[in-house]
Design goal:
Layout (H helix, E strand, L loop, with lengths): L2 H8 L7 E6 L14 H4 L3 H9 L1 E6 L9 H8 L11 H8 L8 E11 L5 E3 L7 H10 L9 E8 L2 E7 L30 H18 L7 E8 L7 H5 L3 E4 L3 H9 L3 E2 L6 H10 L6 E6 L1 H7 L3 H13 L1 H6 L4 E5 L16 E6 L13 H4 L5 E4 L3 H8 L9
Parallel strand pairs: 1-10, 1-11, 2-13, 8-9, 8-10
Antiparallel strand pairs: 2-12, 3-4, 3-6, 3-7, 5-6, 11-12
Helix pairs in contact: 5-9, 11-12
Length: 401
């Protein structure tokens, strides 16, 4: 059953504050047999202290055994069934940079990549090209012209940019052109249903013209297209939970998803420390705060165990500043696991910590995957995290007589 059916009926108003700290991809694996995970190797005195006072659990972002993308992973955290509400990355990226995706639009999240002389991908992210280098290239792609189609190209961050096609009769079911590996050429855009055939043809023509415009670039001489999608319809946080919610994030995709569920984007932070600055300044204006930290995920995708450990320690360091604000419920979790050993998202459950004066402490002594296995929250699906947060904030009435 969709938990929001009950939360819509039972939510009540009060002055409590809920903070959800999300370290993207925080879950990991040992880099060698018997060794620690990234989280277990990190020095996290603040999260460990909260773990002793709070309650832990192992959270499945979607279902056991299913590896989530970032969009579905965050939807689950926000209490929206990611299977029922299927949102493509293109819409998330477009919304995150302030582009309104209309009813005749298909949005695509694109990556600049590096191609070798044979046209094969040598670097899927163009060396994580700096935004100041990639933005002019994205703007250059606005020169692509296709009869009968409006084309919008928007820079995002580093190797990412967004393309939106606007025309009648476009479907959003087109396969990604990123083969997810190097040494092979980008895939052709292939429609996955008849309604998306026109979109696939437009995408193929866009790539053809874009490759000519990018020819000779030293870092980003190619592109891949991912997350073809149309605009979804989602209930808002206010409707589902009775919360005035704020999103504090650096990366556009996460801002986009937060906006789609009715959160207000607050501030323009460029770092985790600046995100907490924004939190402090906006503390009295909202009931719920989503704070997103990206770099635990990107270091895992790079396969850099040591750097992911450092990012986790940065995440831990901001916890006392959040505690000083005296939230009624404080959650630390991730949207999925990204083990450096795998260099990718994985299906492994995410260690999740919930602290509130109303929680029933378990015997866990640290915030880690191994401790979370025995935590009082047990093994649970992410869609139940928001109801748990509301309950601990005394924002849910009794069900039934």
């Amino acid at each position: 059953m969709d938990p929001q059916i009950l939360t819509r009926e039972l939510h009540v108003k009060n002055d409590s504050k809920i903070v959800m700290l999300v370290a993207d991809g925080i879950g990991g694996l040992p880099i060698e047999p018997g060794g620690p995970t990234e989280l277990e190797a990190a020095k996290t005195p603040n999260l460990d202290r909260l773990a002793k006072k709070g309650v832990l659990g192992s959270m499945y972002p979607i279902k056991p055994g299913i590896t989530p993308g970032s969009g579905p992973g965050h939807l689950g955290l926000f209490g929206y069934d990611p299977i029922k509400y299927d949102i493509g990355r293109g819409v998330l990226e477009a919304t995150g940079v302030g582009f309104h995706v209309g009813p005749n639009d298909v949005a695509i999240r694109c990556n600049f990549c590096a191609l070798d002389a044979q046209g094969s991908i040598s670097d899927r992210r163009a060396g994580r090209i700096a935004t100041e280098e990639s933005a002019p290239l994205a703007i250059k792609l606005r020169q692509v012209k296709i009869p009968g189609v409006e084309i919008f190209v928007e820079p995002v961050k580093e190797h990412r940019f967004v393309v939106v096609f606007r025309s009648e009769g476009l479907g959003g079911d087109v396969a990604d052109t990123d083969p997810q590996k190097t040494g092979v050429p980008p895939l052709d855009p292939v429609a996955e249903d008849p309604a998306s055939q026109k979109t696939a043809q437009i995408a193929a023509e866009f790539v053809k013209q874009a490759q000519k415009l990018l020819a000779g670039q030293p870092k980003a001489n190619g592109l891949t297209m991912r997350g073809f999608s149309v605009a979804p319809h989602l209930p808002s946080y206010e409707d589902a939970y009775g919360l005035k919610a704020a999103a504090i994030a650096v990366y556009p995709m996460y801002k986009g998803l937060a906006q789609l569920v009715g959160m207000s984007l607050v501030g323009q932070p460029g770092s985790l420390a600046e995100e907490i600055d924004v939190l402090e300044k906006s503390w009295h204006d909202y009931d719920f705060f989503f704070i997103h930290f990206k770099y635990t995920d990107s270091r895992g995708e790079d396969g850099n165990f040591a750097e992911k450990v450092k990012m986790i320690e940065q995440f831990d360091a901001i916890v006392p500043r959040v505690e000083k604000l005296k939230p009624d419920v404080l959650i630390a979790t991730g949207d999925h696991s990204t083990p450096a050993a795998m260099k990718s998202h994985s299906w492994h459950p995410v260690p999740t910590l919930l602290w509130a004066p109303t929680c029933r402490p378990d015997r866990c002594q640290a915030y880690s995957e191994s401790e979370a296995l025995y935590g009082g929250l047990g093994h649970f699906e992410a869609v139940y995290l928001m109801p748990l947060a509301l309950a601990h904030a005394n924002r849910l009435a009794k069900y039934g007589a």
